[in-house]
Amino acid sequence: MKLDKKLILNIENIEYKSEKTIANSSIEDIKKNLDILPFVLKWFQSIDIEKLSINDNIVKIVLNKDILSVENKFFLLDSKIDVLSKEVLLDINNLYLKDYNILFKGKAKIDYFDEELKYFGDIYYQDLIVSGNIDITKDRVNFFIKSEIFKNLHFLKKYLDLPEVANSWMYDNVTGDFKLNWFYGEFDLNKNEIIEKSLQGDAVIENAKIRFENSLEEINTSKVNVNFKNSTLHFDLVDAIYKGKELKNSFVTIKDIANENSGLVLVNIEAKTSLDKDILGILEAYGIVVPVVQKNGETQAKLLLSFPYAEDKPMSYNGVFIAEKSNISISGFDFETNGAKVILENDLLYINDASFIYQDIVDAKVNLKLDLNSLKIEGTSQINKILVKDSKNSKILNITNVNSDIFMDFSKNVNIELKDLKTTIKYDKFLTINVNDISKIYNYSDILKQNSINSGNISLKIINKDNIEFNGFFSGFTIPIKKDNKEINSLDFYGNINKDSVQISSSDNSIRLNFKDNIDSFFRWI
After folding, report:
1. Residue 335: strand pairing partners
2. What sequence ranges are listed for the domain YhdP central (predicted)?
3. What does the DSSP 8-state code read for residue 24?
4. What CA–CA distance (Å, rounded) separates 19 from 157?
5. Which residues of 372-437 form beta strands (DSSP E)?
6. End-to-end alpha-carbon separation of the chain, Å?
7. What span, in angstroms and rounded, lies between the C-alpha atoms of 275 and 283?
8. How far is CA 77 from CA 70, 71, 109, 232, 405, in A?
């Protein structure tokens, strides 16, 4: 059949039932309408259908010269139209996809030879305004967009629902003023789903707030630079502040964002600040308890936390902390350090090249390994000095330039064992030094050497520099006192050294001595 002129179609109301598969979405319906558009434009000069009912879909169509208007239950189109030999140009005033609540305003070109539609213009969704290009073929939609400022990514959740951990970071943990610099993706028309591996883009979040974990305060930043590529979402924090502390070069990376088995969240924190309760609180929020608190001074800290999506996979945490001169407390035991390098490897904390200074009593350099589960430490020490003096500066104990293996236990009270010296140092409220074998410290005690006491043990409880309590056992010497008509060559004793005197008694209190001088007087008397 050949027509000299195109047809004019006017219908007020027509209704019929179709047994063919009908469209289930606006995108699918538009695709089907585009397939028949060449036929309509070829045979019809104008169309005015007031009501066309196809099953439950009511359609209204107007085609008049350069105007095309279509409305059904899936979409509403209002556009100018220009028909060329192999393509149709659309100047779209409104294209509203009802099921997606998305509005398009722009220009489109339909190429019948390549069966392709290209769109250039603006897209409106809730409070989001984007401009971009969309390319629709028989099987796929490719899109490239950029946006104005919007408030969050919640609009994506309906179409991109991720595992719980990823959802938190994608939609809740970061707030601020979002802006897409560019974003590219692909949509499979056959499966009616986003092709996740195709998604990539850059965004910026101005005046951003980030919450690493619900129990922690928010981190304030001037902005967050966001990148998404190869299923990896990366947040780069710029000028980040946490509780008044500057976090430089800190970031969050989510790898394999949609994979419940291999998905992984990486949190990197860098700061130059005291390793205080605020910083340690970040670790504690994830169940990591480090019993070290820096009371002053600064530490160059770098910490990387790794959280798998899968609950059967353990989290890991690694960090490097370079401390400057400061006061440190380990489980309530306070000491000074001139510097240390601390390395965190999951449940182990390595303390390397650390100076350890306690008042004027202990000065050492240590290399230690702390088990965070047992709170026990082992390592080596280079003892510059362990010096105990009485109030008159008499040297009761003066250990210098000695290397020793060291063992510490912080699970209850502080317990330090110097294995090579058969000596333990305990700290509860006071410092206690227990020498289990006098012979091991004989060469470091002028008093012991002067009196040839090289057998026994002694315990010194240092309440303060003017008050030292002691007890022990000495043997291998004689004193000018007899007990039961026998010379005394060994002695179980206890006593006290205070500012003005030395008091000593045998354990059975049968001998009691009091010297109004210093401890040298006691040993000279012996």
Report:
1. 328
2. 168-411
3. S
4. 34
5. 376-389, 395-409, 414-418, 423-427, 431-435
6. 137
7. 11
8. 5, 6, 15, 37, 82
CA–CA separation, 390 and 468 (whole Å): 8
d(CA 407, CA 420): 11
Q: Which two tokens stand for residue 466?
A: 């003017």
In contact, 353 and 334? CB cutoff 8 Å: no
Beta bridge partners of 345: 318, 348
**Backbone φ/ψ region at 399: left (φ over 0), alpha (ψ -120 to 50), beta:** beta
Q: Token pair of 441, please?
A: 């410290």
In this prediction the pTM is: 0.75
The answer to whether 95 and 76 are in contact (CB under 8 A) is yes
Strand pairing category for 102-111 and 174-188: unpaired
Is the alpha carbon torsion for 484, 490, 495, 500 positive or negative? positive
d(CA 371, CA 338): 23
**Secondary structure (H, E, C), 257-281:** CCCCCCCEEEEEEEEEECCCHHHHH
CA distance 354 to 17: 85
Please tell me the distance from the alpha carbon of residue 436 to that of residue 422, in angstroms, as a whole number. Answer: 6
Q: List the domain boundaries for the chain.
A: 1-120, 126-273
Give the model confidence (pLDDT) of 18-41 as tens digits. 666 567 777 777 767 776 777 777
Distance CA 250, CA 228 (A): 17
- The 10s digit of each residue's pLDDT in 280-305 is 888 888 888 888 888 888 888 898 99
In this prediction, residue 404 carries a pLDDT of 85
pLDDT of res. 392: 65
Q: Which long-range CB contacts under 8 A does 502-510 form with residues at least 24 apart?
A: 502/390, 507/471, 510/483
Token pair listed for 206: 């101005």
